[in-house]
Amino acid sequence: MLEALSLPFFQRVLLAGLLASVACGVIGTYVVAKRIASLSGGLSHAAFGGVGLGYLAGFPPIVGAAGFGLAAALIVGIAQRRFGSGLDTLISMVWAVGMALGIVFVALAPGYAPDLMSYLFGSLLFVPWEYVVAVAVLDAAILAAVLFFHRSFEAVCFDEEYAEVAGVRAEGLFLALLALAALAIVTLIRVVGVILAIALLTIPAAAARPWVETLRGMMGLAVAICAASMVGGLLLSYGLGESFEISIPPGPLVILLAAVLYLVSVGLRSVLERGARAAATAA
Amino acid sequence: MTAPAAELAGVSLSLRGNPVLEDVSLRIEAHDYLAVLGPNGGGKTSLLKILLGLLSPDRGSVRILGRPARRAHGQVGYVPQHVRFDLAFPIRVMDVVLMGRLGAARFGRIGAQDRAAAEAVLERVEIQGLAQRPIGALSGGQLQRVLIARALAQRPKLLLLDEPTASLDERIGRSVWELFEELSEEMAVVVVSHDVGAISRYVRSVACLNRRLHAHPSKELTPEILEATYGGPVDLLAHGHPHRVLEPHEDS
Ligand SMILES: Nc1ncnc2c1ncn2[C@@H]1O[C@H](COP(=O)(O)OP(=O)(O)OP(=O)(O)O)[C@@H](O)[C@H]1O
Ligand SMILES: [Mg+2]
Question: pTM of the full predicted structure?
């Protein structure tokens, strides 16, 4: 299985996955803390519409995904502030309409789309160098925004009303946060796919939560958990194919590993706490 | 002459078709110490939200520190009635208090003076020892004081407190009223409270709000006024409080 590490295509997908982990852990922490997981899920599915448009119009699908994701972020973000309770319905609409558009665009596009499935569930094989570079650039942009505005983002996630009162432009920052979530999803598209991307924004951050007391700590640990799931899932996807001729795209394997890490994290924490409590009563 | 801290003229507000405030006019001077009281649903929280620019009135004008309310953000401190955030949120007390500095900080960058200011306000509300505590590991009264510290960290010119003493114990509760009095030398202070005893002892003027506002610059709060505000006899006064619950004080 480890011989995969010397194969150029595997090196590319691994590098893309590790770079995506940075975006995921950092932005996923905000997503979990602000409880906008379903909103972010809507963004990732909306992005598929852009993938389809890319096929149809002949530009890189990844650019279309970014465009559709950002547009959906804007629509849902503004609607969230204006309508509040109707949001749930709107999210599911954006979610499904994005997917539907993607399928329609692809059907209309001439010829056969050999790597279409890879946008849905990720793939080991369809990660070109250009994509790795694009992920690195997106990472840099996301990290720069977070380094610069972390406290304001934190305030908006924690208590939007007070953030506004304190002089933070809460609405603009919330939209910016959604835009960053859309970009983080784009970093995941080729490796885990749009359908499963939301899981990597939420599971690693949720797995990190029991061990940390600050958003910064949560980000760091979430990045590590996400990266570990990536490495494991990619190697597993390769190894299953090589040794057993079982072909499973990496996306589902990465997500399942992350879910296992989540269970381990939560389980270990509660065992440790029970132990500490037992020790305290014994003493 | 400096602009008044707040000036409302003929303000009316309805929320989802229910009239909440009607023709409210109010002027708060730079060093006022004003209590707002009134029955549940009387519109006290809504009035504060108008002062904060979080709600816009249907009619009437609102000027805060000589500006439209939304342009005064950062200058108006706010202690909300209810905790609006998730107590499981991973954040420490110090970082919550530092949120009060975000308006003044350039591009949201927090510096050494901001930390010093946050430490000073934590000391002022007597919880300096809790700076590194996670927000979820506080008692109700401690949390209330964190919220007061966060508002004070803004160094506001107008401080709005919505029932800030609800979960503070007697000794601390009283010293907090004294703290507000002390603060009113630096800023205008508006406290929403049902604590007629404390109001009578500490604040300098009272406004009764039950959709309509009755301001009492005369500093006299008679049972008739309270009854008119609450729409019935007020039990609070039956517990041995004098009929004249507010002592007259020298005109400022
Ligand atoms: N978001 C809202 N939508 C519709 N009606 C509202 C809303 N918020 C408040 N109200 C109504 O406005 C009126 C005033 O509410 P407000 O919260 O200002 O009262 P209050 O004086 O602060 O009461 P309390 O002493 O219980 O805190 C109430 O009748 C309430 O039902
Ligand atoms: Mg209220």
Answer: 0.88
